C-alpha cells in the first residue's frame, strides 16, 4: 500500500506560479508537520517521495528526519502535472512509500472521490492498474492531543 499525504496548511494559493511554488507552510501547517511523525507512527514508511513545492517539502521534512529516510523530490507530483504523468510515476513506487502532493493531484487521480484536507492522508491500495483509496487519516490538527493516538475516518 501507498500513503498519499496532502501538504499541510500554507495559506491561500498565489497567482504567480513561481511565487506559489515557494509558498511556505503557515503556523498551523508547521505545527501539523511537527505532529506527523507521531500521527503516522503506525504506518510502514520506507520511502518518502514529495512534490518539490516548498509547502510539500516542509510538510514531510520532520517525518523524514524522524524515520531516518531520505526525502526524494519528484516534479511529477506537482499540481500542474498531467494525471498520466503522475500515474506513471506512482506505478513505479513500491509499497511502503509515502507520497506528499497537492489537492489537484488527488482530484486527478481519484476523480474527486477522495477529498483530502490539508495535512490529511489516504491509505491507497493497488488493484490491478488502479489506485484505490481505502482509509482516510485525519490531519494532525483534527487528531486528539494525546501523543501516539491515531484517528482514522472513512
How would you describe this protein?
- By secondary structure, this protein is of the alpha/beta class.
- The protein has a single domain, classed as Rossmann fold.
- The protein is built from 5 helices and 7 strands; from the N terminus they run E-H-H-E-H-E-H-E-H-E-E-E.
- Strands 3-2-4-1-5-6-7 form a 7-stranded mixed β-sheet, with helices on both faces.
- Strand 5 (121-127) and strand 6 (130-137) form a beta hairpin.
Topology:
Elements: E1 2-6, H1 17-21, H2 27-39, E2 47-50, H3 54-67, E3 71-73, H4 83-91, E4 97-101, H5 103-110, E5 121-127, E6 130-137, E7 152-153
Parallel strand pairs: 1-4, 2-3, 2-4
Antiparallel strand pairs: 1-5, 5-6, 6-7
Helix pairs in contact: 2-3
Keywords, separated by commas or semicolons:
disordered C terminus; 154 residues; Rossmann fold; alpha/beta; 7-stranded mixed beta sheet
